[in-house]
Design brief:
Shape: globular
Largest sheet: 8 strands, mixed
Helix content: 40-55%
Structural class: alpha/beta
Strand content: 15-25%
CATH architecture: 3-Layer(aba) Sandwich
Order of helices and strands: EEEHEHEHEHHHHEHEHH
Number of helices: 10
GO molecular function: serine hydrolase activity
InterPro entries: AB_hydrolase_1, AB_hydrolase_fold
Protein name: Valacyclovir hydrolase-like protein
CATH topology: Rossmann fold
CATH class: Alpha Beta
CATH superfamily: Alpha/Beta hydrolase fold, catalytic domain
Number of domains: 1
Strand order of the largest sheet: 1-2-4-3-5-6-7-8
Keywords: Hydrolase
Length: about 260
Amino acid sequence: MAQMRGEKVEVNGINIHYEKVGNGPNIVLLLPGALGTSRTDFNEILEGGLDQSKFTLIAWDPPGYGFSRPPQRNYTRDVYENDADYAYNLMKTLGHNFYSVLGWSDGGKTAVFLASKYPAVVDKLVIWGVVPFGLPHTNRAFAATKNMTFWDPAVKKRFTDVYGDELEVLWNKLVDDCFRNGIGNQNHIIIADSVVDKIHCPCLIMHGDKDPMVSIEHAQFLHKHLADSRLQRFPQASHNLHQTFPKEFHKYVTDFLLYE
């Protein structure tokens, strides 16, 4: 099992695990995806993908994930908005009142709610792999992830190192609960346009054109409703584009956060 690399701090009654690396003046909060932790999702970024003399990187394990357990994760309809509240209070507890946010997949949903509810603290927003509403073909792709035979072995190992033999049970619960509570159902609205319309900070949206779970319609919806946004497509990338095309990813993020 993986060893805890960071620290824990109490936020609203939950001991939240986070890692902080770098000492640069640009503070960046990293929000991982489903079952994700600081290292399962962002190891490449934390290991030098972003210049640590220019950035201070803070990556968390959301409540109920990784080393932020207990509690057990509950996939209610307001789970991403609740995570946004916890993330905001984590950063407040750590003494950071203005920062950029990187959110992948479910973490991207949390990032959107964070920027919408707390606009005064978010400098810039970077999101990728975000599903704001259900579509039949992307829902089928999500449901198919329960068959872990087809998972990339390297990706699966990252999660097994954290969750061990619990991984398959936890993942199946995640998928089942999402559909049971409507999060993954056809035409269900996860992020309403009224939420996105409140965001006015600069936003970089990235999309892997070969992502089976996230359609270009999802990225285009966010691009349309985010007042100050740009869309960067990766023609050969899938869902985890930051891991499969790290050089390009890090360059786009660095240029956007520092120079645009």
